[in-house]
Amino acid sequence: MRMSQLYAPTLREVPAEAEIASHQLMLRAGLIHKVAGGIYSYMPVGWRSMKKIINIIREEMDKKGGQEMCMPIVQPAELWQESGRWSVYGKELMRMQDRHGRDFLLAPTHEEVITSHLKNDVRSYRQLPLLPYQIQGKFRDERRPRFGVIRSREFLMKDLYSFDRDEAGLDISYHKMHDAYTRVFSRCGLNFRPVVADSGAIGGEGSHEFMALSEVGESEIIFCHGCDYAATNEIASVAPQPTGLGEDMLPIENVETPNCTSVDDVARLLGVTNDRMVKTLCYIAIYEQEEKFVVALLRGDRQMNEIKLLNHLGCLELRFATDDEVRAHQMAPGYCGPVGLAEDVYIVADNEVPLMVNHECGAGKKDHHLLHVNYQRGDYRISETADLMLVEKGAICPVCGKTLDSARGIEVGQIFKLHTKYSAKLGARYVDENGAEHDMVMGCYGIGVGRTMAAVIEQHHDEFGIIWPITVAPYEVIVVPVNDKDAWLVEQAENLYQELLCHKVEAVIDDRQERPGVKFNDADLLGFPIRVVMGKKLRDNGLAEIKLRESGRVIEVPLAELAATVMELRAAMFAGLDPDK
RNA sequence: CGGGGCGUAGCUCAGUUUGGCUAGAGCGCUACCUUGGGGUGGUAGAGGCCGCACGUUCAAGUCGUGUCGCUCCGACCA
To answer: Residue A547: pLDDT above 70?
Structure first.
């Protein structure tokens, strides 16, 4: 490609709308254009990089027995009514009607369609397992699109679905995908980590997210330095650390605590630390048919993980109870406590709470708290205990007992075990060797392609621009003749360029009538892994200069060895990102 | 969805407080000259529904109402 012809609308200044480096660079390098909020075009240079990522994914999926296909993004509501998601999925699901007034949607994911195909096409265990996949656009009407292509509404995703005859088969498929994902992200040059995850609205048990480590990531991950434990903070658990262990149980005291409605205030007034308190949170759990008042108990210094609570309750939504709703259950807002609550109130406690000795808590009466409360003595009732706390840095690893650390990550992929959630609803069954019918056992496995590209840039850039790993670089080499008035120099550059093309090297020649500084800056911005500069030194000493974008290393090479050297360097870069080497 | 900020040239932004000539700058773009190893210097140009609508006024980029869009924080989310 000739730089003079390349459709790469680069920007010298940083567009005002972009906050993070990858978004700014994608805009500045002309990789993407915004069409509407959360909706982007991939421009030619950006799309070349996307195609590289797609090909890597495709190769790894095919290696594991995946079979590529393509499903529609516009789907009829009936399918989603059958699976139950038409009513469950919220406003994120883009719904619409056709000219006849029939309901359709823009697919945010494709479980329904693929499952309905398998239902029609697969009868026998002999046809399983099957691993169909596609690389398709998806649409989710995000409340708040952000960070360019990282959280967009329309996005490109690879989604593979596994269909097995039983759980053992699912385990095999799941492990295949875990391995494939590790290879995909390694080849893309990402610093990533698979972590145990919540399976969210898609449902099912067993899930890993693949996190590209980055400070601008939207997810927090909790991991252990002492062992392999790593999980999203949505699901991370810890070893319980109840306070007061070994103390004698003291009699309950009712004390006045005027105007102290927060844990901090009360603890300060009583002269205890927050971890000696139990906080009582009142929620309204919203189910499809009903609403339920829920009291949740947590050690005073912990934060509630509402995702855990929501999953535990099995409800659709969760909100704080209003002051009136709290009063309706014989409690005072700001002074709630579990002691003396009516029998019909559902009380769920974090695992730590029932083990705590002599804790303080609200008295259920305005301006009063109770001291030395003990569940084990029967001071109050708990309906159920569960893991409810939000795990933070510094907590204790549930596996090895060491201290946990935290980091932020961009979620570039996720794998789920769906089990029979969709096959049962949609009737995707097969007959085994004994003639018995079973639901197929499913898994689903997604990779955000655009997000992966953004994560690569987020991890590989400097103040001058993008530093592409060669495996996903739009072009591999740029040839820069320094002086376009020097015919001999231009000719040498052309020769090299043609020779590289002959060897299937993806090369660009900067044939623009620009100052060297302009060419160098654009080369840095666009992030070509290898830059060849031909200038004065070539004329005077017969030496061209090769500069590597990543290390900044400069090598001076005689003209005769130039092409061979470029190809060696290129091969070494590929080898460095090959998980088999 | 709640709260804040912003919509003026392709991009970054002045101008709006206190309404008043023909709406500005830098970058980019076009032509020519100059320069030729890190965004060279110069000359001449092109480029604007001042987001949209309605209203107030002799007069609106500037004031009011509405609306659309963008953005940040929060809530939420495979």
So the answer is: yes
